[in-house]
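Justification of resources, computational component.

The compute hours requested in this renewal are based largely on the per-chain cost of generating structure records like the one below. Each record pairs the submitted sequence with a full structure-token output. That output is archived, and it is also reused by downstream analysis tasks.
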Amino acid sequence: MTSSTTSSPAAALQPTAGRRCHTVLNSLHSTHYFSPDTGRELGELGITHRSAVNFAVRSAAFGPVGPGVVTAAFYNYDHELVAAHVPRIWRTASPEDVLAARLRAVDTTLRRLLGDDLVASPEMAEAADLALRAAEACDRSARPLYAAHADLPVPEAPHLAYWHAATLLREHRGDGHVTVLLGAGLNGIEALVSHTATGKGMTPKWIFTTRGWSQEEWQAAGDRLRSRGLLDAENELTEDGVALRRDIEAETDRLDRAPYEHLGAAGVERLTELGTLFIGTAMQAGAFPADLLGKR
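The structure output for this chain reads:
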């Protein structure tokens, strides 16, 4: 794979350029979590419960680990939900089989959402090259999900290589984000409540469905945030809450800056442009539920 884009690692990078690039890359990575293709592929291995499918495909890179590792790395899932499925999933299918099934599902999903022409386009090959180049500067230190996925081989097909690189960049930023959340004194559910209050996170309905938390636990987390002056009686962020979320994102940007500095400003701009094309096409094809994001 080659790229027509050249850029200097020393070129000035705007403070939020990496975040914008990550957003479009992460969005395309995430399509397979909502794809029926993933459920079908894992179902053929005997893993059928929606949560079990999610835990299997994202944690398979760790090997056959127990629930504690998954809860710690995923951060915002209820441990009881994790323990209901892990490690039982590994008695049903091996991590190696799950990883292979995941890649088959991603291939089918991207072809369905993007179309074969875009999948096989020069733009896809260029994007894969750029994203892999950015991932060269990711750091394994204290980043378990990134480090586990970095040990996996890069697929040969450009659209799968692009998805793989997007996965590396997503997990690299996500691991750093967890570090920042810990420093801010937000546990998993409190992080979710405060993120939902920004209007950019998942709706409570989807959090209850996918993360395992109850309405009562959600309310209790909100009460704790109110006691800290971060949330008001209407579940809106206070000025302090807005400032905290802003600082969390800024610090996450700082910890995640290396890949985008390595790629350079022109490369980041081009990768963001290509990624926007891909995810825009996928969303027009119905990649995500209409009610996935929002405050309520």
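The CA atoms of residues 28 and 279 lie 6 Å apart. Residues 1-9 have pLDDT under 50 and may be disordered.
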